[in-house]
Write a structure and sequence with these properties.
Elements lengths: L6 H10 L12 E2 L4 H9 L5 E6 L5 H9 L2 E6 L5 H7 L6 E5 L7 H8 L4 E7 L5 H10 L6 E7 H7 L10 H9 E9 L4 E2 L6 E8 L10 H13 L5 H9 L3 H10 L13 H11 L2
Parallel strand pairs: 2-3, 2-5, 3-4, 5-6
Antiparallel strand pairs: 1-8, 6-9, 7-9
The chain binds S-adenosylmethionine.
């Protein structure tokens, strides 16, 4: 077993394979030994889990997942990591590597074929450049996943887990809350990575709901309203929604009144229930 938290071991392994870091792929590898066991414990509540990992890097989180899960499938975009992973994962026969772009692969098919009969969770130290698109893709595709346990930049974590109706919330917080129960687990300092990024990170867990947390007449219209409402944060909901969606102000004011809300309210003040009520009335 390699000590994958030791920078000199990592440098030797990478040098032997002629690997060089690609900043564009968000390659900051974890070297804090306490983080991966904690993430893996959160992702595998029992040993009947199949874990889908995005971006194994040199395999530091993968080995912790493989020690706890029934099976791990790890998707890595960078082919240059193939020889490194062949060495670091050689002790495990329950890990399968797929080289490709996690945003483009058919994850539903991968889950169905690789994890038959298992509960499935996603666990990853995500490349920062695809954090929100990847999380939204996982949630919107309604994949059969129990939990998503991921490390993201701390600022993104705050936004993703924000209480709806608070200043920190935004369109992405509403979308995450619609499909899941989000929780901030713990923060990770920027010095825990090689190379060290400029900002700190945090691990969050999204427990995927069996059905959305509010009832909407039409999901697409609900998200159109949410995106428009948050698009101009200093404006009232009436002004931003009417300008973004070309809807008459009077019908938006009427919808707010029917929900007992002031016509001057900003979108960030509404709860999930109020957002869905307003959307259901506007798009009746
Ligand atoms: N899991 C490792 C760790 O914690 O040290 C590496 C994490 S590093 C932040 C992100 C990893 O995702 C890198 O290995 C990078 O090559 C990979 N990656 C970047 N974009 C990807 C994509 N679209 N699909 C799959 N993997 C990707």
């Amino acid at each position: 077993m390699y000590n994958l938290s030791n920078p000199s071991v990592i440098k030797k392994l990478l040098d032997e394979s002629g690997f060089s870091f690609k900043k564009s792929l968000g390659q900051n590898f974890l070297i804090n030994p306490s983080v991966c066991p904690e993430m893996a414990d959160a992702a595998c509540s029992d040993d009947n889990f199949g874990v889908l990992e995005i971006g194994p890097g040199i395999g530091v989180l993968t080995v912790e997942l493989a020690s706890r899960a029934k099976k791990v499938v790890s998707i890595e975009l960078d082919e240059g990591l193939r020889p490194v992973l062949a060495k670091t994962l050689s002790d495990f026969d329950n890990v399968e590597l797929i080289f490709g772009d996690a945003m483009k692969l058919d994850l539903r098919k991968i889950i169905a074929t690789k994890f038959a009969g298992m509960k499935v969770s996603v666990c990853a130290n995500l490349p920062y450049y695809i954090t929100s698109p990847l999380i939204m893709m996982l949630l919107e595709s309604k994949l059969p996943i129990e939990t998503i346990t991921v490390m993201v930049q701390k600022e993104a974590a705050t936004r993703l887990c924000a209480k709806i109706g608070s200043r920190e919330s935004g369109a992405v917080s509403v979308a995450v809350k619609y499909y899941s129960d989000p929780k901030m687990l713990f923060t990770v300092s920027h010095g825990s990575f090689l190379p060290a990024p400029k900002v700190d990170s945090a691990v969050i867990q999204l427990s995927v709901l069996k059905s959305p947390c509010v009832v909407t007449n039409n999901e697409a219209n609900f998200f159109k309203l949410v995106k428009a409402g948050f698009s101009q944060r200093r404006k009232t909901l009436v002004n931003s929604v009417s300008s973004m969606l070309s809807i008459d102000k009077s019908s938006i004011i009427l919808a707010l009144e029917q929900c007992g809300l002031s016509p001057d309210i900003r979108t960030e003040k509404l709860t999930m229930e109020q957002l869905s009520q307003v959307s259901n009335i506007i798009f009746k």
